[in-house]
Amino acid sequence: MLEIRNLHVAVEGKDILKGLSLSILPGQVHAIMGPNGSGKSTLSYVLAGRAGYDITEGSILFNGEDLAAMPPEERAAKGVFLAMQYPVEIPGVTTMTFLKTALNAQRRQRGEPDLDAVGVLKLVRAKARTLNISEEMLRRALNVGFSGGEKKRMEILQMALFEPRLAILDETDSGLDIDALRLVAEGVNALRSPQRAMLVITHYQRLLDYIVPDRIHVLARGRIVAEGGKELALELEAKGYEHIVGRAA
Amino acid sequence: MTMLAAKSWDGRREEARTVFEGRGLPTRRVEEWKYSDLKSALGEAGLGSEAAATRIMGLPPGVEISDLGHPHPPAWVAQHAGTLARNAVSEASLAFAEGGIALRVPAGRAITTPLALELTGKGHVRLLLVLEASASLSLFETGDAADPRNAGIEIVLGEGASLEHVRLARAVPGVQVEEIALKLAAKARYNAHFANFGGKLSRTELTISLEGEGAEAHLSGVSVLGEAAHADITTHVIHRKGDTTSTQLFKKVAGGKARAVYQGKVTVAKGADGADSRQTAKALLLSEAAEADLKPELEIFADDVKCAHGAAIGDLEAEQLFYLRARGIPEAEARALLIHAFLEDALSGIAREDVRGMVRTAVGQALEALT
Predict the structure, then answer these.
(1) Which of B324, B327, B360 should be substituted to probe chain A, the one whose Cβ sees the most A Cβ atoms within 10 Å?
(2) Which of A5, A143, A244, B35 is positioned for an S-S bond with B261, CB 3.0–4.6 A?
């Protein structure tokens, strides 16, 4: 589903990713772990199509198509979803209006008919309930005045609503207490399916207790320096990044 | 008595004419006109001396109407017409508008149907609106594109009276200026919104005198300006008594070579303790050549007051734009959504839902033309 080959990315002329390769098949959950500054967030942004992240070498194929050539909205419509580390506040746009606009914008690009307001409302309510998101939150401006946990749950609600084929979760665990983490992880696990792939980016092993990955990749200095099964997370937790990063260097 | 009053209306007009002809049109050297070069926008012809007209679309029952130029005006007209704050340009409307509409809502009357009023034709026009104690009214003001037009509006709010005033000024090719002078008695409330789409020179100037304790003025406005449009909103709120409140929230979107101006002065007079005033003006510039001049200003002579002001000029937030696009919303649609969102809090200041709907539609059309 996702095929990254020898990816080099520069931000403001500075090389951040230096030859990253990664392959994810449908139904798989991969985790990327790495110390601060290793390029984790750069990878998530370059997959979502944020401006200012220049691919200087290599390629990203999504279901055989050149992802890098598509604007962010087209990637979303084709099924790429990034749950952001810092969800953005949008004053003046209610959460419900945003969800409806985004859902229909994606549908339109896929040649599907718009859902009417009632249809969207029903869909959102059903999904919001399981994530403990209140009606009141849906009426508020998007992410404005939301707590850290509420923002992350809102990201997962969007993921549930848009039903992406590839979901990238960027530090979804950061700033969450254990109850919020469990709620978010349950939401993510409910979306695991043979047709969907996930890329979980995290600094800590904690999240991977709840969202158990098929493969773990360790990112350091812009490259994958170690790979393994879920037991690799435990090794990292026990011995620290220095141990593995140092070993690879 | 009425003869005397009639004579004094003519007397006031005569006096205004002398003053106007003595001073002439304001130039950019006059501080309040620094960003709006009226004299050069009008050219040789100036403001002229013709009279424009006011059209009322169905007078709601309970509203009394009279003519400012009536030889024997009722006492409420004679008492107030031509008495409120004047500036160089309102002297001209007083001098040259031949008559004008005077409206009164008697004490205690609550008028629920909005009063729709349209200014038409070129030249000078005057309006007097008097709400007696505890009366209430919603005024919806529009105008045609004729130019130049100079409107002078006087509004008197009695104790506990409440006026909602929404002005929807369409985009005009030429020059339109409007001066609104108000005085508010104790506990009176003025809730106003000014939507403006600009002109060669378009200016709304408000002078609001809060003369009784507990009087409140809440002003909001949006400007959506494209091409070479200019729109200026200039306000002066004077807190003369204690426990008076004023809020102002003006939002402007400018593209092309447009120029958005906000000048807001709040004066708190000596002894007006407990006065509370807030001023916010923000502009979103969509092009390199667009310009915004935002100038909030405070003048405080009292000791115990709460005053806050702020102004900001910026572009759309790249982070917000990316977030929306990453959720599948195409760039043009995402930009439009964010611009609407920027204006939203100013628009929500319009209390009546039907009127708010009309303003929203006009704003939507102007934004579509702009983006």
Answers:
(1) B327
(2) B35
pLDDT for A17 equals 95
Spatial distance between the Cα atoms of A202 and A218, rounded to a whole number of angstroms? 10
For residue A76, the chain B residues in CB contact (below 8 A) are 325-328
What strands, in cross-sheet order, belong to the sheet with B201-210?
Answer: B64-67, B101-105, B123-131, B149-157, B175-184, B201-210, B230-239, B259-268, B291-300
Encoded tokens for A74: 């087209």
State the residue for tokens 């969202």: A211
Contact B325 A76 (CB under 8 A): yes
pLDDT surpassing 50 at residue B6? no
B343 Cβ under 8 Å from any chain A Cβ: yes
Return the number of CB contacts < 8 Å for A and B. Answer: 78
Phi, psi of A70 (to 5 degrees): -100, 145
Contact A73 B341 (CB under 8 A): no
pLDDT tens-digit readout, B212-257: 999 999 999 999 999 999 999 999 999 999 999 999 999 999 999 9
Is the ipTM beyond the 0.90 threshold?
A: yes
Parent domain of A144: 2-248
CB contact under 8 A, B323 and A90: yes
| Cβ contact B327–A98 (<8 Å) | yes
Rounded to the nearest angstrom, the minimum Cα separation between B254 and chain A is 19
Question: Would you call B345 and A92 a contact, using CB atoms and an 8 Å cutoff?
Answer: yes
Q: Tell me which residues of chain B, numbers 278 to 337, contact chain A at a CB-CB cutoff of 8 Å.
A: 317-320, 322-331, 333-334, 337
The whole-angstrom separation of Cα A108 and Cα A104 is: 6
The answer to whether residue A222 neighbours chain B at the CB level (below 8 Å) is no
Tens of pLDDT along chain A (249 residues)? 999 999 999 999 999 999 999 999 999 999 999 888 899 999 999 999 999 999 999 999 999 999 999 999 999 999 999 999 999 999 999 999 999 999 999 999 999 999 999 999 999 999 999 888 999 999 999 999 999 889 999 999 999 999 999 999 999 888 888 888 888 899 899 999 999 999 999 988 888 989 999 999 999 999 999 999 988 888 888 888 777 776 554
Mutation target among A85, A88, A140 for the B interface, most CBs of B within 10 A: A88
pLDDT computed for residue A144 by the predictor: 95
Q: How far apart are CA B119 and CA B96, in angstroms?
A: 16
CB of B131 within 8 A of CB of B158? yes
Q: Give the 3-state secondary structure percentages of chain B, helix then strand then coil, rounded to 5.
A: 25, 40, 35
Predicted pLDDT of residue B3: 44
pLDDT at B35 over 60: yes
How many folded domains does chain A comprise?
A: 1
Question: Is the CB of residue B342 less than 8 Å away from at least one CB of chain A?
Answer: yes
What CATH code is carried by the domain that includes residue A55? 3.40.50.300
Contacts of residue A134, defined as CB under 8 A and 6 or more positions apart, other chains included, come to A128
Q: Is the pLDDT of residue B1 over 60?
A: no
Written as six digits, the tokens of A228 are 């393994």
B343 neighbourhood in chain A, CB within 8 Å: 92
B328 to A49: CB separation less than 8 angstroms, yes or no: no
Q: Which of A51, A77, A141 sits opposite B328 (nearest CB)?
A: A77
Q: Which two tokens stand for residue B316?
A: 């759309």
Q: Three-class SS of residue B195?
A: strand
DSSP state of A133: -
User: How does DSSP classify residue B199?
Assistant: B
